[in-house]
Amino acid sequence: MSLQTRVIDEFQQQFGETPQFIIRAPGRVNLIGEHTDYNDGFVLPMAIDRAVWLAIRPRTDNRVYVTSTAIDTPTDFTLDNLENEGQHHWSEYLKGVTWALQEAGHKLNGWEGVLASDVPVGAGLSSSAAIEMATARAFTAVTPDLAWDPPTMALLGQKAENQWVGANTGIMDQMISAAGEQNHALFIDCRDLSTKSIPLPAGTAVVIMDSATRHTHVDSGYNTRREQCETAASFFAVSHLRDVTTAQFESKSAELEATHDNEVMRRARHVITENERVLQAIAAMQAGDATTMGRLMNESHKSMDQDFEITNEQLNVLAQLAQAQEGCFGARMTGGGFGGCAVALVAADQATDFATAVSQAYDQQTNLQSSIYICQATAGAAILGD
């Protein structure tokens, strides 16, 4: 049974009628450009065929009531009395978006419904951003004066995650969930939120490999990495590391290390070189050059391991196993790090054999059960039928 069918069936069982709106907001995989978004840099993610689904109807009062197919406890709150309970619970993402919309001056209408998701939580595939964009899309469905604008809603989703949930994430996750394009990756300039559709090289497939290890942005070293990047930007007298070239970095890296420490220097080196890799990756993808794209992915993983230190043992094993397989152009950790998933660019006609080989080797080497799937690029958050 598809998730779309499931949320409709669950809604009918709970509310005794057909839902008025069906909403889908996808998760994402980032092909290259990690921890560059909050540095005003460049990223190259794609929305994937795993998503948050909502079946909803308007309410006549000012309440939001949502049940989840995976969790027994519903979320139930009033629009005029939002309370942050400080828990790492899916309901806080809904309330956070509600709060951010109201802070932006929008008068919202209530709604109720059923939520289902097949975006794994904590896997680095943006399950939280998918909930945020699904929530924002739901409010646009039931609030006549609230227009859907992907960059605006992405920024409000980011505000919810930063200020309500307490994770200082960048804009990439919300932006790709809101603005993803069918059959394409999306180049995003995180300074002005301009986008450009980038096709995958012909004859290639994107394979996601779940390490079965998990993170949370709130509890991991994510916020520390952001603080270190801000320290480095201040040293270079710029607002964000996006404005520092490799040549500028190399000329002052020793001074940066002496002034602060080796960690801050290496964090800056990752971000500055990663931005350059993204631009090179776009050129490679547009030229259909899967070999160069794969090499850049491998270099990105090495940088995240050695300079940014956001991989873990299992992610390193996954990347190494993937890189060693026939038909693999390149592989890297994807997402915020400290657990979650890796991503590989693979020859399409060898993708199934690749997935089987990596899964078996990883499970044998780590005694963990991986989940590996070939994914498709999909469109961003939408009301079904729009």
Name a few traits of the molecule.
386 residues; alpha+beta; Ribosomal Protein S5, domain 2; Alpha-Beta Plaits; eight-stranded mixed beta sheet; 11 helices; globular
Topology:
Layout: H1 3-15, E1 21-32, E2 42-58, E3 63-68, E4 75-78, H2 90-103, E5 111-117, H3 127-142, H4 150-165, H5 172-179, E6 185-189, E7 195-198, E8 204-210, H6 222-235, H7 246-259, H8 262-286, H9 290-306, H10 313-324, E9 328-334, E10 341-347, H11 351-366, E11 371-375, E12 382-383
Parallel strand pairs: 3-5
Antiparallel strand pairs: 1-2, 1-12, 2-5, 2-6, 3-4, 6-7, 8-10, 8-11, 9-10
Helix pairs in contact: 2-3, 2-4, 3-4, 3-5, 4-5, 6-8, 7-8, 8-9, 10-11
- H/E topology pattern: HEEEEHEHHHEEEHHHHHEEHEE
Distance between the ends: 23 Å
Q: What characterizes the major β-sheet?
A: 8 strands, mixed
Gross morphology? globular
Topology, number of strands = 12
**Average pLDDT, all residues:** 95
